[in-house]
Amino acid sequence: xxxxxxxxxLVLAFSSLVALFPAAIAPEVARALGVSSATVxxxxxxxxxxAMLTSLVGGPLTRRLGPCRTSQLSLALLGGGAGLLAIPTxxxxxxxxxxxxxxxxxxxxxxxxxxxxxxxxxRRGLIFSLKQSxxxxxxxxxxxxxxxxxxxxxxxxxxxVLTGLALAGIAALQLARPRWDDQRDPHTPWLATxxxxxAVVWHQRSLRHxxxxxxxxxxxxxxxxxxxxxxxVEDLAFGLVEAGLxxxxxxxxxxxxxxxxxxxxDLLGDRLTALALIACTTAVGALLVATMTPAWPRPxxxxxxxxxxxxxxxxxxxxxxxxxxxxxAERIADAAGGCLVFTYGGVLLGLPLFTAxxxxxxxxxxxxxVLAGIALVGLWLIRQARLAARREAAGPSPSPATPGASx
Length: 407
What we know:
Layout: H1 2-24, H2 26-33, H3 37-41, H4 43-65, H5 67-85, H6 90-105, H7 107-118, H8 124-132, H9 134-152, H10 155-174, H11 177-180, H12 196-203, H13 205-235, H14 240-268, H15 271-290, H16 298-312, H17 316-326, H18 332-361, H19 365-394
């Protein structure tokens, strides 16, 4: 099991590294493409658009190829996308982002199938949270390595290094393929039923509510990650370097939160309760941020933002583990892919929503009050998911007795 956890975490970290590498060197890339740095930032949206597409077919494709081969395909698409990103033209940059996104979307369905197979049910919250820590870990690596590589060998060569890492990962996974893919079904249709995962999620009420919850939580997560520096600089009079250090702390606390909440979910034996605690903590933290002013002490501002990130960035592993709990055993990969369509939808919707609200209010702090409201919507969805799960566990209601029948 440690090997499975390490492999799935590294694949996810690599996907995050590829997604965020250009953003970490946006000025260099922007100069080469002849566009603004903000345009380079839109690349993340293209990546998640590609991820939504492969999430639709991730479940059946994983069953057909096997989770190990699907992970190799994911690395191939990510590495190919990184290589295409090195071509300094805007059309190829857009295509490359979509290609990398296709690989990003295949990471979680394959990882879910592997981890469910090799992880005891009582430890899934912690294990899935450790795996999901790969996302912020990839972001930390991108922030640390991309500028250094750009200075040492150039940003294009740095992207080609990522292609080489992808090839090395594919070769390493081949050693495990005979064991990890021994239950695959090569006759599973995957392209003919692209909405099978969505159907599994939408027809099971508990999964539907958990998927909608992830849409809310991912929109909050993206907003906190993307706008913390702008909030500190423009609304709270922090210096740019000081704000960047706070942002780094927020990301580190997010990693701790992912692992910690997974442990809490397993300790409680009830991951929906852990998600409810996350929703409440997020709502309280966002409301406190909404009341901040430049007069607040710097340590207090930093502490409250870390409190918010502990929950708003820490929910993912608990969410993925709960999918495996609610989904039919034979449709776990489908359910993971279907739920992630909603998750990535929240990523795509969160940024423009937050931007529009900032334009309406003229400041960042009031928008965090709206994020608190979204967290409370998530709390209501958790309650609906719990009620639906109880009804599903009880089975269909008995038919009314026919008049005249023997009692």
